[in-house]
Amino acid sequence: MKLPPLRLIIVFGILHLSLSQSRHADLLGLLAPLFLARPLAEQFAKLGCRAQRRALNTWMPAAAVAMLVAITGVAATRAITPATNITPARALASIDKNSRILNAYDFGGYLDFVGIPAFIDGRAELYGMKFIMRHSRALDLQNLPIFWRCWTNTSSAPRC
Questions:
Q1: Rounded to two decimals, what is the model's pTM?
Q2: What is the per-residue burial (b if ≥16 Cβ within 10 Å, else e) of 79-109?
Q3: Is-contact 117 111, C-beta < 8 A?
Q4: What digits encode the pLDDT tens for the residues 60-78?
Q5: Helix (H) or strand (E) run with residue 68 in it
Q6: 108 is in which domain, residue-wise?
Q7: Short-list 116, 110, 117, CA closest to 86
Q8: pLDDT at position 79, please?
């Protein structure tokens, strides 16, 4: 099987991205079939395997649908929760749920997930760089008055 050079370069580039950074893995699954479909379909058509294609055309879609239904059924029965080794689950079990929490930036998403109002979460564009830098200096205890003002602020939308 042969691929045009430009498509081959693009597919290998996407493969490199997905192997080097996991956030690009979806790109490989989405874009590689788009770049490979036409050249491979043209080559399969030239092979003249019409009888085999007819046989594949009858049972292949049914098998794909059955596999998707089975995978979806298995995935739907599983509880989707973050791993306990990367969450503060044990720490949250020991506190009162109504208390205010001055949390680190990384744990804000988890606090939102379990229903506890977070002081700051992963939506940096909502807070702004100035607030995030002050929050970081307060938690690093580089500026104790800012830390105390953040901790004692009782408003519903804490801004220190």
A1: 0.43
A2: eeeeeeeebbeeeeeeeeeeeebbbebebbe
A3: yes
A4: 778 888 888 998 888 778 7
A5: helix 50-77
A6: 84-152
A7: 110
A8: 75
